Amino acid sequence: MRLLTGLLFCLFAFVAQPAAAAEGSLYHTVQQQLAMLVTSKTADVGIAAIDLNTGEYVSVRGDRHYPMASTVKVAVAATYLSYVEKGDRSLDDTISGVSAASLMKRMLVHSDNHATDLLIRNLGGPATVQKWLDWHNVDGLRIDRTIAQLLSDKRDLYDSRDSATPLAFATFLKRLDKGELLKPWAKNYLLDLMAQCMTGSNRMKSLLPDGTLVQHKTGTLNGLTDDVGFITLPNGHRIAVAIFARGGSNRPSAIAEAAKTIYDGFLEVVGWPYNAATSIGGR
Known about the structure:
By secondary structure, the protein is of the alpha+beta class. It is 44% helix and 17% strand. Helix 4 (100-109) crosses helix 5 (113-123).
């Protein structure tokens, strides 16, 4: 039985991993374009983008750890919603005189740090969010501190605490989208709030065509600029994206250019209209 359990766990871990872009494919071309973009920037930029239909991905510095900053709020929201699913919490619950639903909106739409910490405290602290991620085998995301603690500590953009790799975060987003972590209603609730995000208009959304659906969450510290989320192409095809940038200059524009490269490149891959049978990999 232990052997069978071990085999099933290994199989699940393998299936959960996205497939790297095959050399010579259009995905590989997108990856090369992103690599050229990154090397032209003074900032240290890490990128990962996963095709939610085929599972193939592109990644540049995707295994480097970067501070998550406020992008961690996606994980906080998902954890709270999982407790709502079980009946242990409600979006109508009042926390410090404010409904949980209002705190969720403040956290994800306006990136309100105080609202985030109220939700984290209600859950029992950062360790509860980490335990939820660990329980679901979400690797590569580390949550150690409240937002207040993070901001009060000495700034270190290479601190392993409260960090993630771009590929790990994009994989986390992919699993959220596939319904592996939340029930459909909870996932849709979370993505709807991410679609209303009011911060970072000069980042992922900046260079995309007007009307493009972007469901995202930004993160910002002194010397750090992040943006993670989902981009929907004109034909409905969707991409999970995580872009982190630290140091250097013009970090928002680097993120905007990377998102545009991903948008244009993936649109060329899937064509118009999208047909799964003719996409790269055909799976």
